[in-house]
User: Fold these one by one.
Assistant:
Number 1:
Amino acid sequence: MGNARLTQTIWKLIQSPAVIFLIALTVRLWAAFQLVPAKAWQHFYGYNEFARIAWAVVSGYGYSSPWANTPLAPTAVEPPIYSYLLAGIFKVAGAYSYRSLWIAVVLNGLLSALIAVLILRIGRRDFGRSVGVLAAWVWSCWLYEAVVAIRLWESSLAALLLTVALLWLPRLADSSRTSAWVLFGVLAGVAGLTNTTLLAVFPFFWAWLAVLCRHRGHICGKRLTASVGAFVLLLAPWTIRNYTVFHRLMPVRDNFGLELWLGNHEEPPGHFDNDFPILNPATYNRLGEIRFMEQKRETALQFLRQHPQEFLHRSLRRVFLFWTAPEGSAWPWVCLLAWLGLALALRNRKTNALPNAVVMVMFPLVYYITHTYDTYRHPIEPVILLLASYALMQVGEAVGRRLRDTSSTRIASD
């Protein structure tokens, strides 16, 4: 009786959102205490575009100067949300100060720890309680996730916004409140102004909502229009700012040409020190931001036209790297399980699996054709861990059934 009560208590603790949040936060703070004191500049402030822009904002130069040794001129290299968030921290605690760094790192840790709770809720709703618990604990305890989460970057905020959207979507399909749909549009706008790649998934989320509403016999055309309208209205001020400053239409960022060039030029991938502004800003300073981005885009497009097979080879390599980096980690197996989990969820006709499929398919596309890096995958890693956990549970259940059937057959034959 005592053992059963102890087991029940442990299980309650394991699936407790508060316990999961505290464990996730503890792991992230531990990682911060290991990294921040020794490597505050090298791994956090150094070469950080968001921090540089935040410094320019609080110094009175406006949203400008993403790289050191470049003119204090307006920029659209990065989306604005995280830069202004850092600017607020710099305003309170000092630009490039040690205290500001700790505030930003702890904030990222808090956002990432909150994601663990959302993973638990989404997994429990869509795939079963055990899946949610497993995925939430992996997210909470995996040191890799903790280290990536506390970087001075928008990754944790982007991951949180996407996870909130996935939690919200099924509820929204049954909601008749226009205000809820408008808030979802606001969420989409904030997400796009935080990580521009997220703009690739939200149109498909709205399409899924429209199909689901029609399937359930709901009329949601006006609410859907209101949601998309809120999204457009939220993006509009930044788009207008960019048009006013640069005299051309750019909804959020202007750096696609540079990103395309980074992965597609005559030198081998990864060799870009001749012109990359972090290392050598001479060309950027001479041409200015817009002409520099245009030149890089034209150089990359010329490479694509002259070397289509090489572009295909590099793109396939980027597909592989996106799902397997960093080298020597468990990510190749985790991502393989995630794709298996997605296939199983779709086969089992789990309706809520379709938004996960959108994330898995649409989010990485831009990185396949430009360039990729170990941490670019972080915003969708909650989805990956959920699907991988579902695959593990499904395989485990299948093996368990097979063993029970085999055992029953042997007993019957005896």
Number 2:
Amino acid sequence: MSTRSCLALVLLATAIAGCGSQAHSDAPAQSSVQAAFKDSPAPLAALHAQANQLLGGGATAFKARLRALRGYPVIVNMWASWCEPCQSEFPVYQRIAVQYGRRVAFLAVDVQDTNSNAASFLRHFPVTYPSYTDPHGRIAGSVGSDAQYMPQTWYFNSRGSMLYDKDGPYLSVNDFKRDIAFYLHVK
């Protein structure tokens, strides 16, 4: 392989590797969020009131929240501030959570992270739902996920049963919408 070809491959690899770190927030304007969530059912309004917050309590608190959300389908995003695929996926979550937030409960689990790094990340990528802190990675096992990859998305039906455990990021709003329609029957 020529020096020129090697240089081209190195430049291509560098460009591809940098793609995940170049994600930009796609958070809608606060006025759009307020309009979208107007008259939300009480359990979902409680989530919206905790937008962008980091919550403690571990698996016990997380499972209690899932029980409190019975009657609504739930989507959970497992993420970390240091995870580049998570950074790439967050703009999709920002849009989808607003679009579906009156019919679907959204939660997150921040795994193996520090609160200061997670808070900084959420300032850059604000979301309309809370994240439970999980520094030791125990929440996934408590809900039956093997959590082999990050990010992960968990789908729970309105009775609280996990329907699907998706490995990897959502990079397209349309792909996410397709899975919501298929697994939760929400359009």
Number 3:
Amino acid sequence: MRQFESRQVRAAQDESAERDVNEQIEEASAPEGLAEYGCECPRNCDVPVSLTVDEYEAVRSVPTHFVVAPGHLLVGVEVVVREHSRYTVVEKIGAAAPIASALDPRSPTGPA
């Protein structure tokens, strides 16, 4: 595997692990108001990202989308889908996209 593809795969795996943590946060959150999710960037950061449950659900409706703190885009692995003052939604590209989909806990073929 080329080094670039390896970087994409590793980033997708790291971000998917953070997404799993955010799934647990969402389950414990009230449906109204803001909840503090973790930035799903692959930098092993601990920056909180504030979203409503509905906003997080919109991100999670696409298995290749992740929520990151503003400025946490990983060029070459993802592209910006939309920006908000509190968060940025990114989409995995290249080799990262199928990994992100496969690791999505909500996917019928993803981890249980």
